[in-house]
Structure formats: C-alpha cells, structure tokens
Amino acid sequence: MFKVEWEKQSLDSFYKKMEKLIKGLPENTKLGVEDALGNTQEKALDNKRGKRDKKMIPIEVVDFSKNQVVGRVYTDKDLFSYAPFLEFGTGTKAELSHIGKTKTFIASGYRYWFLPVDKVDRAFSPERIINIGGELFYIMFATQPYPFMRPASFSSREENANLVDERIGKFLTEVLK
User: Fold this and answer.
1) Helix, strand, or coil here: 73?
2) Do 16 and 74 reside in the same domain of the chain?
3) What is the pLDDT of residue 81?
4) Same domain for 27 and 74?
C-alpha cells in the first residue's frame, strides 16, 4: 500500500508555476516567432542588392491564436514593386518561363520591359525614359535573377527553429526555478 503526502506550500508553488506556464507560453512562443521573422528579414536584406531598408521587407505575425502563431516576411509592393524582377530575373534571362503573354513582350521578344519611373528609388539614364500613354517609363533590359528572399528563408530554417526553442527554453527555465 502506498501513502502519499503533499506539503501544501509545495503544492501551491507547483500550481502557481503551472498557471504562469499556461499564461506565458503563448506570448513567449509569439516572441520566438518574431525573433525568427527578424532573422529571416535580416538575411533577406543581406542578400538583396541595393538599399537595405527594413520597410521594403516587412515582417508581421498574421495569426496569433491559442493553437498557433503564424508570421510572414514579405516585400512591400508599394516600396519594392520590382522585387519579383530582382528575385526571378527578367526577359530572356528570367529563371522561370513567363506566364501568359502581353503585347509588350510579344513585340520585344522578351528583350526589354518597362518600369514606371515613379516606382523606382533611383534614377537611370534619361535616355532610357519613354512616354507611354502619358506615363513615364524606363526601358529595362533582361537581367539575371538575384534571389534574396528564397535563400533567406531556406538558409534560416534551422536557425529560426532554434530561436523559437531558445525563447521558450529561457521562459521555462525562469518559471521552473
């Protein structure tokens, strides 16, 4: 026969620790995901050619519920509208085949494309400006891809998992002292 006795003070301490764990674990998981998102953002900025502005590659937690934390690292289409061209290349040097056809690309044979002047954060040669329907565009030529987002996400997977583990581990260590 077994006889089990509990010291009330120890039991109260146990309940307080469990309550603190239940309340704090979701928030610390969210903080770990934010650490991981920031890490991926930094790697993407390191890989990116040109200006290193965090506003161009923002991060956000899109879902924070009882069962999950979902975040994303993305490119801001207003500040960095040319991100897909940089990531995948353009024209004849594009990494992937073109989806569909436009009159512009049919006529040019994929050798050039047009970039709205107001979407670029730097000036190209004025000789490359063309007016199409009252709007100014730069004539852009085929460029090879310079991936920055895909390498950042693939190279940081294990490191990001470790960042989340580290954040949760610190929390558990603090609570269970």
Assistant:
1) strand
2) yes
3) 80
4) yes
* Total domains in the fold of the chain: 2
Tell whether the torsion through CA atoms of 6, 7, 13 and 16 is positive or negative.
positive
- Is residue 2 in a domain? no
Say how far apart CA 162 and CA 156 lie, in whole Å.
Answer: 10
Record the pTM. 0.76
Do residues 89 and 105 lie in contact, with contact meaning Cβ atoms separated by under 8 Å?
Answer: no
- 22-30 contacts at long range (C-beta below 8 A, 24 or more positions apart): 24/171, 24/175, 25/168, 25/171, 26/64, 26/66, 26/69, 28/167, 28/168, 28/170, 28/171, 29/69, 29/164, 29/167, 29/168, 30/61, 30/64, 30/69
Distance of CA 126 to the CA centre of its chain: 34
Parent domain of 28: 8-79+147-175
pLDDT at 5 over 60: yes
